[in-house]
């Protein structure tokens, strides 16, 4: 399949994990906006949040989305907040096939609870935060999605298989 494939969805949906594996299967290059920001700045996402606040991170994220969506024939994993800004949504929609990886809040919480690398979840009620983000963002992910893939209870191998079937149709 020609063209870019772009993953969107909440933290813990599997964008980075599934995106990397799909790229390998399809023999495409893989990029992840968070990883690329970290590689270029030499610091972590939590550090950027600490020093520049969420607003500073969002600026870097928008620039990275602009740049990486200019590439051709790649798999791109975005961060969960990439869809917050309308301009990013337009860029993402126009850049290829967009897959919204979906999971319920309980699963997202299970998958992220031991990870210290998501500043928005470093508080005393990460589950409530995920709930709030789900309400706010689910419509935005839907707005940009070509396909919605439910990852609920599915191992990564099944999700990959399902995506490959969808995009080959
Ligand atoms: N379908 C799945 N089932 C179980 N665990 C998963 C699944 N998809 C991802 N994970 C795990 O959840 C965690 C978050 O995945 P990640 O790819 O970083 O998500 P995202 O980039 O969407 O935030 C990782 O530990 C990953 O191994
Ligand atoms: O949802 C968000 O606002 C964020 C998601 C993270 O990426 P993942 O969705 O890959 O965890 C990362 O970009 C940052 O911590 C902010
Ligand atoms: Mg990720």
Provide an overview of this structure:
55% of the residues lie in helices and 13% in strands. It is built from seven helices and five strands, in the order βαβααβαβααβα. With 169 residues, it is an alpha/beta fold. It has helices at residues 15-26, 33-41, 45-68, 86-93, 105-112, 126-144, 156-168, and strands at residues 5-8, 29-32, 74-77, 97-102, 147-150. The mean pLDDT is 97. A five-stranded parallel sheet has the order 2-3-1-4-5, sandwiched between helices. Helix 2 (33-41) packs across helix 3 (45-68) and helix 5 packs across helix 6. The radius of gyration is 15 Å and the shape is globular. The protein has one domain (5-159): Rossmann fold. The protein binds adenosine-5'-diphosphate (ADP), shikimate-3-phosphate (S3P) and magnesium ion.
Under the CATH scheme, which class? Answer: Alpha Beta
Name the average pLDDT. Answer: 97
Strand order of the largest sheet: 2-3-1-4-5
**Alpha carbon gyration radius:** 15 Å
Query: Beta-sheet strand percentage?
Result: 5-15%
Low-confidence stretches: none
Compute the number of structural domains. Answer: 1
Shape: globular
Q: In the CATH classification, which architecture applies?
A: 3-Layer(aba) Sandwich
Cα-to-Cα separation, first versus last residue: 10 Å
Order of helices and strands: EHEHHEHEHHEH
Write out the CATH superfamily name.
Answer: P-loop containing nucleotide triphosphate hydrolases
**What fold name stands as the CATH topology?**
Rossmann fold
What's the story with the biggest beta sheet?
5 strands, parallel
Summarize the SSE layout with pairings:
Blueprint: E1 5-8, H1 15-26, E2 29-32, H2 33-41, H3 45-68, E3 74-77, H4 86-93, E4 97-102, H5 105-112, H6 126-144, E5 147-150, H7 156-168
Parallel strand pairs: 1-3, 1-4, 2-3, 4-5
Helix pairs in contact: 1-7, 2-3, 5-6
Bound molecules: adenosine-5'-diphosphate, shikimate-3-phosphate (S3P) and magnesium ion.
Adenosine-5'-diphosphate binds at residues 9, 11-17, 77, 111, 151, 154-156, 159.
GO biological process, one term: aromatic amino acid family biosynthetic process
GO cellular component, one term: cytosol
Cofactor: Mg(2+)
């Amino acid at each position: 399949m020609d063209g870019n494939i772009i993953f969107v969805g909440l933290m813990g949906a599997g964008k980075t994990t599934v995106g990397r594996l799909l790229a390998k299967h399809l023999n495409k290059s893989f990029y992840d906006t968070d990883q690329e920001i970290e590689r270029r700045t030499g610091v972590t996402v939590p550090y950027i949040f600490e020093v520049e606040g969420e607003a500073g991170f969002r600026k870097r994220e928008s620039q990275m989305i602009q740049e990486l969506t200019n590439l051709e024939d790649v798999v791109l994993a975005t961060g969960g907040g990439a869809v917050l800004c309308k301009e990013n949504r337009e860029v993402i929609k126009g850049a290829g096939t967009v897959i919204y990886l979906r999971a319920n809040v309980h699963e997202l919480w299970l998958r992220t609870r031991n990870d210290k690398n998501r500043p928005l979840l470093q508080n005393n009620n990460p589950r409530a935060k995920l709930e709030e983000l789900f309400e706010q963002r689910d419509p935005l992910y839907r707005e940009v999605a070509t396909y919605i893939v439910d990852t609920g209870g599915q191992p990564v191998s099944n999700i990959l298989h399902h995506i490959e079937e969808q995009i080959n149709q």
